Every structure is written in structure tokens, then in C-alpha cells.
From TrEMBL:
Pfam families: ETF (PF01012), ETF_alpha (PF00766). This is Electron transfer flavoprotein, alpha subunit. Heterodimer of an alpha and a beta subunit. PROSITE patterns: ETF_ALPHA (PS00696). Belongs to the ETF alpha-subunit/FixB family.
């Protein structure tokens, strides 16, 4: 079976759930080979959980520089690994960073690139969301090693314990003149809430929330459910909530088990970021709001009456 390279998303200590999803998808095409790009010691901490999720090989590319630059170290390493392993495909998460890595890698390899994949089959045919969610298409790379960016949450992660073989890669030194250096890191003020793209439950607020203070209702419901908070672009543009929580075409893509939209009309650009959620609940006072066309459960009503009742019910259980 050919290798399928999977770029590991991690925070240095633990593997992100999106990587387990990539490993499950990779198994459909060949032997999943996890590529860990990080500072020295990272792979040793992550190896066990990667092997538990089916990584038959772990490519280790560690250097002090790895944490200092955006995208370039991962692109350099993946290019090397592709030339070394001749894999069936390269899979990365379709996050902001992952998309950048995927695009740059495809150019380096002169290979076909498929972004916003939500599924792939054993013949390499990929289901993709395109034109901001307006269409779902099935595509296949016909030139070079396919580079596929899979949306977080689109594929179920699976435990599949194997013995992982460790392979060291020589890490090329980064050219600072052509690379973006990370100059500052700030902790997210999201507190104890799960990361938006990893959360099993996302509660999002839109313009209907009416103001920054109105987001308390959204946050309370999210906290009762142990979920993350999201926002529509209209809410973000109006200054109700920070941009890093925006869901949609120009924000984050989420695919939780449960997505609750409070005061969100359901513009196509918003749906593009959450339409693959397992169960969608919408609360909107306008019965004609387009979001009800996608929602599994809809409540026509005032979010300030409905959401606190939901929070109370959940908290009481
Ligand atoms: P609105 O469309 O104004 O809807 C507010 C809703 O709240 C209404 O349906 C109203 O009935 C309801 N409401 C009001 N008060 C209450 C109440 N008390 N209780 C219950 N319901 C209430 N949008 C995104 O979200 N994410 C993106 O990434 C994104 N990218 C874009 C990219 C481009 C290129 C463009 C052109 C647009 C993009 N947009 C994006 C904007 C998108 O088109 C919409 O304008 C936006 O999603 C609307 O946000 P909203 O639903 O919160 O606001």
C-alpha cells in the first residue's frame, strides 16, 4: 500500500482532533504516514496517539526554527517527504494555516490541489464544497501527487491502533528573507471553552443578538453545553464579537455534532462555514429566514426568550 502523508496539527503537547480525522480519511487511500513538524521532542510526545489512530509511520522533522515561522517549515518538510516517499496523496486540514501550506506545496510540486474537501473515496475522488457553499462537486487530481485540504469535522476520527515506524527527516533551514516569522503569540481569551474548529457543540450569534452585551446569552448557552461560541460576519463587522470567532466563507469552517444559530438569517456565506454540521438548530423570529431551509430543528421566536430557556433546561439536567 502506498503511504498517504498527513500533516499533523498540534500544539506541541497534543494532537488536534482534525489530524485524527485526516488519518481516518488517509486509510481509505493507503498507509497513513503522519508528518510531525515541530520543535525538538514534539514527535516523542505525539507518537503514541498518532499510532493509536492508525499512523503506520511517523515522519519526524524537528528543529528550533519550526515554531518561529508560518507555513514555510511545513511546506519544506512535506516537499522533501513527498519526494522521498512518493505518496498516494498529501492530506492537510483545511484551516487557515493548512490551506496556506496546501497551496504552497501544490505549487512547489506542480501538483493538483483540492481545497475544502468534505469526503474522499478509496479511488481518490474527493467531494468538495465550492463557490462559498453554493455547490458540492466531485473532483479528482489528474496531475502530480494530489494535495487535499480536508475540512475539520467532515470525517469521523477512528481509533485504529498500529505499530508506528519512526522516520527522521533532514529539516531544511528556513530562508528568513522569503518566510513569514511569528513575532508574537497571545493566549486566546476564550477561557475554558473548546476551540471553535474542534468543538462538538457550537453556539453562534448573529446580528439578531443586537450588540456585544447580547452575546452573554450566546455564551451562557455555549457554556451550558460545553461548546464554543461562533459569530456571523454581520455580528463581527458590527463589533459585537471578535473576528477570530467568525464562522463562514471568510471565517472559520466548523462541523460540530450540534450547531445552534441564534439570530442568524442564513446567508450562503455563513452556511458555507457550518453546513456540514451534524445537527443544526436555528432560532430566528422571522419564519421566512433562509436558515430554516437548512436547519434540522427550527424555533420561530425571540432568541432572548428561547436561548435562556434552553440554557436553563440544559443546566437543570
Ligand atoms: P442578518 O442577515 O441581518 O440576519 C439577522 C437575523 O436575526 C434576521 O434573520 C432576523 O430575523 C434575526 N433576528 C433579529 N432579532 C432577533 C431576535 N431577537 N431573535 C431571533 N432572531 C432575531 N457572513 C458570515 O456569517 N460569515 C462569513 O464568513 C461571510 N463571508 C462573506 C464573504 C463575502 C464575500 C460576502 C459578500 C459576504 C459574507 N458574509 C459572511 C456576509 C453574509 O452575506 C451576511 O451578510 C451575514 O451572514 C449576515 O449575518 P446575520 O445572519 O447575522 O445578519
Amino acid at each position: 500500500m502506498p503511504d498517504v502523508l498527513v500533516l499533523v496539527d498540534h500544539d506541541g503537547e497534543r494532537v488536534h482532533k482534525s489530524t485524527y480525522e485526516l488519518l481516518a480519511a488517509a486509510r481509505r487511500l493507503g498507509d497513513p504516514a503522519a508528518v510531525v513538524v515541530g520543535t525538538p521532542g514534539t514527535a516523542a510526545r505525539l507518537k503514541e496517539s498518532l499510532a493509536r489512530h492508525g499512523a503506520t509511520s511517523v515522519y519526524v522533522a524537528e528543529s528550533d526554527e519550526a515554531g518561529e515561522f508560518l507555513a514555510t517549515p511545513a511546506v519544506d518538510v512535506l516537499e522533501l517527504a513527498v519526494r522521498d516517499a512518493c505518496p498516494a496523496a498529501v492530506l492537510v486540514s483545511a484551516t487557515t494555516d493548512g490551506r496556506e501550506v496546501a497551496g504552497r506545496l501544490a505549487v512547489r510540486l506542480d501538483a493538483g490541489l483540492l481545497i475544502d474537501a468534505v469526503d474522499l473515496d478509496s479511488s481518490g475522488v474527493v467531494t468538495q464544497i465550492v463557490f462559498g457553499g453554493a455547490y458540492t462537486v466531485r473532483s479528482e487530481v489528474t496531475h502530480g501527487t494530489p494535495v487535499i485540504a480536508l475540512r475539520p469535522g467532515a470525517v469521523e476520527p477512528e481509533e485504529h491502533p498500529v505499530a508506528a515506524m519512526v522516520r527522521e527527516l533532514v529539516v531544511p533551514s528556513v530562508d528568513p528573507a522569503t518566510s513569514a516569522r511569528i513575532t508574537d503569540r497571545r493566549a486566546s481569551p476564550a477561557g475554558d471553552r473548546p476551540a471553535l474548529t474542534e468543538a462538538a457543540v457550537v453556539v453562534s450569534g448573529g446580528r439578531g443578538v443586537g450588540g456585544a452585551e447580547g452575546f452573554t446569552v450566546v455564551e451562557e448557552l455555549a457554556d451550558a453545553l460545553g461548546g464554543a461560541v461562533g459569530a456571523s460576519r454581520a455580528a463581527v463587522d458590527a463589533g459585537y464579537y471578535p473576528h477570530r470567532f467568525q464562522v463562514g466563507q471568510t471565517g472559520k469552517t466548523v462541523s460540530p455534532q450540534l450547531y445552534i444559530a441564534l439570530g442568524i438569517s442564513g446567508a450562503i456565506q455563513h452556511l458555507a462555514g457550518m453546513q456540514t454540521s451534524r445537527t443544526i438548530v436555528a432560532v430566528n423570529k422571522d419564519a421566512e429566514a433562509p436558515v430554516f431551509g437548512l436547519a434540522d430543528y427550527g424555533v420561530v421566536g425571540d432568541l432572548f426568550a428561547v436561548a435562556p430557556q434552553l440554557t436553563e433546561e440544559v443546566t437543570a439536567r
